[in-house]
Amino acid sequence: MPKNSKVVKRELDDEVIESVKDLLSNEDSADDAFKKSELIVDVPEEKDTDVVERSEVKDARPAWNSKLQYILAQVGFSVGLGNVWRFPYLCQKNGGGAYLLPYLILLLVIGIPLFFLELSVGQRIRRGSIGVWNYISPQLGGIGFASCVVCFFVALYYNVIIGWSLFYFSQSFQQPLPWDQCPLVKNASHTFVEPECEKSSATTYYWYREALNISTSISESGGLNWKMTICLLAAWVVVCLAMIKGIQSSGKIMYFSSLFPYVVLICFLIRALLLNGSVDGIRHMFTPELEIMLEPKVWREAAAQVFFALGLGFGGVIAFSSYNKRDNNCHFDAILVSFINFFTSILATLVVFAVLGFKANVINEKCIAENSEMIIKLVKMGNISQDIIPHHINFSAITAEDYDLIYDIIQKVKEEEFPALHLNACQIEDELNKAVQGTGLAFIAFTEAMTHFPASPFWSVMFFLMLVNLGLGSMFGTIEGIITPVVDTFKVRKEILTVICCLLAFCIGLIFVQRSGNYFVTMFDDYSATLPLLIVVILENIAVSFVYGIDKFMEDLKDMLGFTPNRYYYYMWKYISPLMLLSLLIASIVNMGLSPPGYNAWMEDKASEKFLSYPTWGMVICISLMVLAILPIPVVFIIRRCNLIDDSSGNLASVTYKRGRVLKEPVNLEGDDASLIHGKISSEMSSPNFGKNIYRKQSGSPTLDTAPNGRYGIGYLMADMPDMPESDL
């Protein structure tokens, strides 16, 4: 061995990085090693390598404190409000128990493979969504930017829902609950029930008038609702404080925010099962209607629910997995989190319909009592003969079965006159068939059911605290999907970026706390995420399977996991999933085209909802939301394809992207203070000789303060590669 090699070996304390490509593969892990004295040897030709894990070099990227913390973070992100107020509605609407079969099939075909794909690329490349897709294919780097834009749009209105939950939570510490009874209005002569409340219900009135103080159309702003503005501010303060230190702060909160909803759901299920009518609700829920399974609409809605339930395309999954060790078994994580999400939806459905079954039973008993009194009056008036009433019937304690019997007898005897009697059938199934979802379920139907619970304030506090925690868990992942890729790419301080992001989102979010704000929430929910996210995930699948190469990706997984994943994933990623996603995209576009764009406005005089179309400016906003979310994809593609941006200013290192590589190119740094900015000294500058150049970094050379989980500004030296296109992006 040559003498010089031995000297080099002693200087590096066995920490030698043999090539530029190895250095690039160890961007994360080389930070601490560079605090000493390193030697970088540039070999002109070397076999193309992927990201290589070097366990002997300490990893400077923040990491999860434990595997449990990471799983809870992924569960908290994927399990959200949709599991509680969307899945039960779809289950009821699409055939009850029969809906579970297409959902489970699509979970295996679309959900788990794509969830596994996002976990894998995040863990392998250890960057946020922007860095990951730049690495996979620079020309498709816009995928990461599009994910960030969608995350921002969703965060704007999702935190408003958390604000609503905070408001109801704060109002739940009262006995009786403020939405238990309709308010009374006094005037000079007498007292009467509020007409708007009398025409609807106490909980409906409280939601639309007391909580939202809603206007009659989206064009009528009505000014800010100050109660909701304060709640929105509180929600953003909580999110900001939880996210300001990244996973080091939010990870600890996950123990509570992810586990508490399960405690509440189990408590609600146990309590509801002890109430009359709960079993009727569950039986109604899971009674299968097999013929509905053949309808394409059922499969489309099941696919969409699988897609959004797992949080695919947002970037939060990639961001969270990027803090894992590279040998973590993300295949197991993908299956575990997916099925936890599925069984959480089942648990939430049981709870919802057990409670709604109890509520339907209460309403049905009230209906029977009112109609029994009407029958007694009709008998006294002679409209109905006493002889047709069975002798065992006791109207003072009439059961549902007895009422059904009397109703059927009267209907047969009084065939022609029956409609004029104005008697109701009082069937519990009729009440259960009134499908409700979203805010209608959480803030009206479920809230009304809880007013009939013993100790209703306690259950109300628990329910809305659960909604807050479900929302926060998803918000943490959504904000992480913005913060992590931006910090990784632009090397800004995470604390500053988090505060700016939350402050900006709160200011923009003020449009959602106007009196017309609920209509804007509907608009953003319908148009800001659905199509853009589908396009993002389709391109993610294409980028990995066809641009990067599915065979190479499978080899990467084998190297990372220590075993080759089942061949099932190969065929899913290459053939089945892209086709299914394209079909879902086409079906969603067709459904959006057939559905008139509009919203349900609350009419104060009629105390009911009325469907209204968006005004012209509203349609412009709807289209702009979709265009802005997708726009980064073609823009970045064109810029990098055509080399439209070329940094030749000479002050800062440009970023050169090549498939599987991100290279910093020092440009005219001689005599410039940029070397100090990048933590370099003159001895680090690349030589024009591309043979075997050795760049020496002295210990004690100035370095940048690195971002907590960014693309660390530690001034890696990278060989000049003049044959590669340059891009500022």
UniProtKB/TrEMBL annotation:
Transmembrane segments: 68-87, 99-119, 140-169, 226-247, 259-282, 302-323, 335-356, 458-483, 495-513, 533-550, 571-594, 614-639
Residues where Na(+) binds: 76, 79, 83, 341, 470, 474
Gene Ontology terms: biological process: L-leucine transport; neurotransmitter transport
Keyword Membrane: yes
GO cellular component: plasma membrane
Intracellular or extracellular location(s): Membrane
Reactions catalysed: L-pipecolate(in) + Na(+)(in) = L-pipecolate(out) + Na(+)(out); L-serine(in) + Na(+)(in) = L-serine(out) + Na(+)(out); L-asparagine(in) + Na(+)(in) = L-asparagine(out) + Na(+)(out); L-glutamine(in) + Na(+)(in) = L-glutamine(out) + Na(+)(out)
Pfam families on file: SNF
Highest taxon in the source lineage: Eukaryota
The keyword RNA-binding is annotated on this UniProt entry: no
GO molecular-function terms, A-Z: metal ion binding; proline:sodium symporter activity
Record keywords, A-Z: Amino-acid transport, Glycoprotein, Ion transport, Membrane, Metal-binding, Neurotransmitter transport, Phosphoprotein, Sodium, Sodium transport, Symport, Transmembrane, Transmembrane helix, Transport
Xref: CDD domains: SLC6sbd_SBAT1
Family to which the UniProt record says this protein belongs: Belongs to the sodium:neurotransmitter symporter (SNF) (TC 2.A.22) family. SLC6A15 subfamily.
Listed name of the protein: Transporter
Taxonomic path: Eukaryota, Metazoa, Chordata, Craniata, Vertebrata
